[in-house]
Amino acid sequence: MAWQQAGRPFGLFVVAAALTLSLAGCRDEPEALKDGSYQARSAGDEDGSYGEVTLKVAGGKITECTYTSHLKDGSLKGADYGKVHGEIRDTRRYEKAQAGIAHLNDYARALVMLQRVSQIDAISGATLAYDQFSDCVWQIYEKADAGAGK
Questions:
Q1: What secondary structure letter does DSSP report for 33?
Q2: Fewest Cβ atoms closer than 10 Å to its Cβ: which of 22, 45, 83, 95?
Q3: How confident is the model at residue 15 (pLDDT cuts 50, 70, 90)?
Q4: CA neighbours closer than 13 Å in the CB half-sphere of residue 78
Q5: What are the pLDDT digits (tens) for 66-91?
Q6: DSSP secondary structure string, 68-125?
């Protein structure tokens, strides 16, 4: 009986902490963005690869979006991404890497169409690309809200 009573406050604490953390991740997207051009770079992954998003806003709406993915050295990920020393040594790894970059334009088109990154679902096989894309868009929301466009 004593362990049940001792466990109850801890259980409530765990539930409260989980709820707090889930709500802390919720951010409000702006209803309209300030007109201009915006660019953001995501944090790098464990290999140092990162994404870059450029948005153009007119009339408070996103009218253009480009999303590129880069290796640590700044070069664009392309047909060689996933190869080892220029060769496909692991077909599964290569196909997974290529699938990830194949959906970059899908994310960009979806943002122009939906106007909200929270409305875009991650695509299976391209979740890291989604995370970096989302990171960039949230940075741009903050810049646009502060009027930092060109």
A1: -
A2: 22
A3: very low
A4: 4
A5: 999 999 999 999 999 999 999 999 99
A6: EEE-TTSPBP-TTTT-BTTB-S-HHHHHHHHHHHHTHHHHHHHHHHHS-GGGPPPPTT
82-98 residues labelled b (16+ CB within 10 A) or e (exposed): beeeeeeeeeeebeebb
- Rounded to an integer, what distance in angstroms lies between the CA atom of residue 142 and that of residue 24? 16
pTM over 0.90: no
Q: What is the mean pLDDT of residues 23-28?
A: 55
- Write the burial class of residue 48 (CB in 10 Å: 0-12 exposed, 13-18 middle, 19+ buried): exposed
- The C-alpha atoms of residue 50 and residue 133 are separated, in whole angstroms, by 9
Separation of alpha carbons 6 and 108, rounded Å: 51
Taking alpha carbons only, the member of 25, 137, 115 closest to residue 63 is: 115
- pLDDT higher than threshold 90 for residue 24: no
